[in-house]
Design goal:
globular, 33 strands, five-stranded antiparallel β-sheet, Neuraminidase
């Protein structure tokens, strides 16, 4: 396998001040954060069989010990969406090792099948990847990814779900995975399940209230409960819910709101900062998304052609995707912004937290267009 230096020299140093609306607790030690320093951290090498990596969305991403594991995902390498281009999924997995605040690629390998738009869960045991494959045979898999002492990736299938799943949520607590929403067996679903990693048994839990269709939400375990926010179907949502694991009941949590502004997190990603807080980056703009889905689904003939042409040739900035770095505090049931990302807002990106460093890996910057960039954000505490 080809090995190479992933980061040689950090470029385009971008400083983003934190503290807007309150202070953030870092993942380690709960210290208040003064600011986040973002750096352009390079890009991944081309996938097998391709000359260039144009970036992917819906990637597998997580951390294990001193390693970032990322790969899979999908893009449109041959023709644009406007021209009817086909979506390409990938089997490539990259293992990057963190040393002295830099990442070096130590392995580029391939799974025996393509993946994308599954759920990634980082645990002490490794990174679980759940569902998410264009091949039905593998779209119900639960796979555990680790790295051995020789910097080699180990990908082990540890279970099967009784349904395929994509665009859903997953989180882990006490050896059990909480999996649901998204598309199950190819159909939109609001169902939630518990998968026991020890017994390999799946148990259906209470369904999330509200909308029957809820794709690409963000979710984390905070204070021992499962929190789910936003997502979407024919429209984007800004609501939030808390699932009580012991009681198997749902209750409302705060909507995603900063000041008077409600924010969609459809397509965003999140990381758990500490027992109380999660950080979210990305999210489609609700008004733009709702308008586009309506028109793409109802217009016909020349009107549809004109709308599609304008929509898919629009500059990323005009989609107004969420650039605020958002923090949710479960203890206080509040949201706040700590500033904005100094790069195009990504959706479907890999988001990985390693101690005081957060990595935003690839993702979509407008409908049908990916970025190959990776950004490293150093969380600086007071």
């Amino acid at each position: 396998m080809k090995k190479g230096l992933f980061v040689t020299a950090m470029a385009s140093l971008l400083i983003l001040s934190g503290g807007i609306g309150g202070q953030v607790s870092a993942a380690e030690g709960g210290k208040p954060v003064e600011r986040i320093v973002w750096e352009h951290a390079g890009q991944l090498e081309a996938q097998k069989g391709f000359d260039k990596n144009i970036g992917t969305a819906g990637v597998l991403a997580g951390s294990y010990k001193d390693y970032v594991i990322v790969g899979g995902g999908a893009n449109f390498p041959y023709e644009t969406v406007l021209d009817g281009g086909a979506k390409q999924h990938y089997s490539d997995i990259y293992v990057l090792k963190k040393s002295n605040n830099k990442l070096t690629m130590v392995e580029h390998t391939n799974l025996d099948h393509e993946i994308g738009y599954g759920s990634s869960v980082t645990t002490d045991d490794g990174v679980y990847y759940i569902g998410g494959s264009p091949e039905k045979e593998f779209a119900d898999d639960i796979t555990l990814l680790t790295v051995d002492k020789k910097n080699k990736l180990n990908a082990k299938k540890v279970g099967d779900l009784p349904f395929t799943i994509s665009d859903g949520i997953a989180a882990e607590k006490d050896g059990k995975l909480y999996i649901g929403l998204g598309k199950q067996d190819g159909k939109e679903s609001n169902k939630l399940y518990e998968y026991d990693l020890k017994t390999s048994k799946t148990r259906e839990l209470a369904s999330i209230p509200g909308e029957a269709v809820r794709n690409q939400s963000v979710a984390q375990i905070l204070n021992g409960q499962l929190y789910v926010f936003s997502g979407g179907g024919s429209i984007a949502y800004t609501d939030g819910y808390k699932y009580n694991i012991e009681k198997n009941t749902w209750s409302k949590a705060s909507s995603v709101k900063v000041g008077k502004k409600e924010i969609s997190l459809l397509g965003a990603n999140s990381v758990k900062l500490n027992k109380d807080e999660m950080m979210v980056i990305g999210g489609f703009n609700k008004e733009v998304y709702d308008h586009a889905v309506k028109n793409l689904g109802t217009l016909q003939g020349d009107d549809l052609v004109a709308f599609r042409t304008k929509y898919f040739t629009t500059d990323p900035v005009d989609f107004n995707w969420n650039k605020d770095i958002l923090i949710y505090n479960a203890k206080n049931d509040t949201w706040r912004s700590i500033g904005k990302v100094p790069f195009d807002a990504p959706c479907g990106e890999g988001l990985v937290l390693m101690k005081d460093t957060i990595y935003s890996i690839n993702g979509e910057t407008k409908p049908g267009v990916r970025t190959n960039a990776i950004y490293s954000g150093t969380i600086l505490s007071k």
